[in-house]
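Sample intake sheet
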Amino acid sequence: VPVILGPSIPRGDRGLEERVEWCRAMLILFKPWRCLDDLLLHGEGWDAAFERCVFTAEQLRVMGNIGVLSECKDARPRTKDV
């Protein structure tokens, strides 16, 4: 299981700016690539490239699980005092 170091993966459900960052992260993680041109067409945004890409059901399931994990990590500090 890969461990991603650095800042947390952005959430795709927190506004347009973070959605674009989330699309970039998902493309980098799940679409085969060797150079930036493999991920993005000239002048294309990350969100458009994500929508253009066809992911397997398994990849979409993992993306969903990443989102659930992020939600749990965000909820933990709020429930700590309960």
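Comment: The helical segments are 16-30, 36-39, 46-52, 57-79. The mean pLDDT is 87.
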